[in-house]
Amino acid sequence: MAGIENFRTLSLITLPGSHDSMALYGGPEAECQALSLKDQLRAGIRFLDLKVFGLGDTLYVMHGVMYQHSTLKDVLATVRAFLTEFQTEAVLIRIQPESFEKNTVNQMVQSLIGNDQHVWVTSGMPNMGQVRGKIVFLQKSTFTLGIPLIDTDGKGQTKVSNVKDKDNRIIKQLNQATEACGGDNAVLTYTSGTGFGTFWGMFLTPKRVAEKVNPWLNQYLRQFYPNQPRPCFGIIAMDFPGIDLIQTVINLNWCLTIGQTLSGGVHLFSFFYSNRHKHSTGAGRMSVTMTKADGITVFTVTSDPQSVYPPLCQILKSLCYSPVCCSVSQHLRRVQRTSQSVLGALHIMVGLLNIGLGTIIICSLPSWSLVESTGFPFWLGGLFILFGTIGILSEKYPSPCLVIVNVILNLAGVAFAITAIVLSIIDMASIYMWWMCSDYDNNYYSGYRRQTTTPTPGQDIMREKCFEGKELILMLLRSMYAVLIVLSALELCLTISSAVMAIKALKSSEKGEKEKTGDPELYKPLLEEVTCNPTV
């Protein structure tokens, strides 16, 4: 939220939120989130949906009859700690009383917050500057603290029998939210749903619904990126939102600030930025994200005002270290399993055998040969070892860029393997150890060594033994060349297999990311990246 102008009213901001934010326990039918409250906030969630049950002087966080192992006091302490660290942010909270004496929840919440000046409990619609670093309560029904709330989710709209029908309902709700944005009320749209309580959707748990709805919602919202100004949708509360979907919601707040059109129809967009936030607590490093909508590639740039480097250097650094390309992909790890490690080990084995056989051959052939003049077993063996090492690394650290490098090297390895086969065949065909048994060869071209006398029986025996040894050595050398050819053919198969498997892994990963954009399990390793800049 650091990039949002102080004068903008809260009802004009599109915010990502979580439905039943603390519903982490109770089994598949009850669980609505996978990330802890702290991780949700650091991932970009700015609206919390809480159901509480008052017992004694304690407000317990519930989901139906399921206790979620937390109290409202614990939740507020976590949110306060987050806002202390990141003072440009604000967190909106809706409290829904679940106790029989619902009116007492207001008093209990008021007692809990006391006179805390960092909690907004009045009904007036504030602007962004008034609520930075504060908790903002939303009031509806029997809970009367905070800003009035309009809920676009009609009765029974959380029940899902058909996911496509749920998509259509969400579109209608978002249209209602757009019309209501900018007024004196906060606007809330739930995209969550469950098939529990229906016949046709009895097996649709909240997570299964989210796995279908969230990727669709991500693409639906991105179609509004080219719009200037982009529409306001108020608060969008989701089950199991992933970082990509959260960022898509956040990006709806930014307008076109650089009108330059790059080649290929690429437009450059950037966040609003103001020097007044230069020394604000929690400033993060520059980040660059890329999205696509209607054939247009949109770059979103967030600068780090505290950096000593100029913006251009920050952009280049962010691109080099972008998690889109160079971070470990858990989906790629699952897809590749141990295949690349096995193939990589075989690459290395082939490379070492090439170098070893090349050494033996070059020591056995003092005369001219391709092995001696080009040294192809050595540099090809070194390349094969390189291919294997990159293959193993691409599985151990399966970032998309490393897998792509592995594909490129293996495609080049196909040509190198064919080269090795051709050179080995040529050298094997040209082997002729003329220097052996030359004293017994009557056809030897040097006249002064030509035999002019009839050989003795002993000399004939020695001659035969010499030629037998020569044939044996030639056979051994040709056998080593044959092994080189076989190894090169094996390397050809390995490079093709490695490239094909890596390409399939990349395609599967891309497809998996699109299908499961809303599954936060895929994004947990990225939360450390988000913690450096959790601001909207």
Q: Layout of helices and strands, plus pairs?
A:
Blueprint: E1 15-18, H1 37-43, E2 47-55, E3 58-63, E4 66-71, H2 72-85, E5 90-97, H3 103-113, E6 119-120, H4 128-131, E7 134-139, E8 147-151, H5 163-180, E9 186-190, H6 206-222, E10 235-238, H7 243-251, E11 261-262, E12 266-270, E13 287-293, E14 296-302, H8 311-320, H9 323-326, H10 330-336, H11 339-364, H12 370-374, H13 376-396, H14 400-429, H15 457-515, H16 527-531
Parallel strand pairs: 1-2, 1-10, 2-5, 5-7, 6-7, 7-8, 8-9, 9-10, 12-14
Antiparallel strand pairs: 2-3, 3-4, 11-12, 13-14
Domain Phosphatidylinositol-specific phospholipase C X: 8-140
GO molecular function, one term: phosphoric diester hydrolase activity
Protein name: Phosphatidylinositol-specific phospholipase C X domain-containing protein
Offer a quick outline of the entry:
With 536 residues, the chain is α/β, with parallel strands linked by helices. Helices cover 46% and strands 14% of the residues.
Main traits of this protein?
single chain, 536 residues, alpha/beta, 3 domains, seven-stranded parallel β-barrel, 46% helix, phosphoric diester hydrolase activity
CATH class descriptor name of the largest domain: Alpha Beta
- C-alpha-based Rg, rounded: 35 Å
Q: Which structural class do you get from the secondary structure elements?
A: alpha/beta
Whole-number count of domains? 3
Mean pLDDT: 78
* CATH topology type of the largest domain: TIM Barrel
The CATH architecture of the largest domain comes to Alpha-Beta Barrel
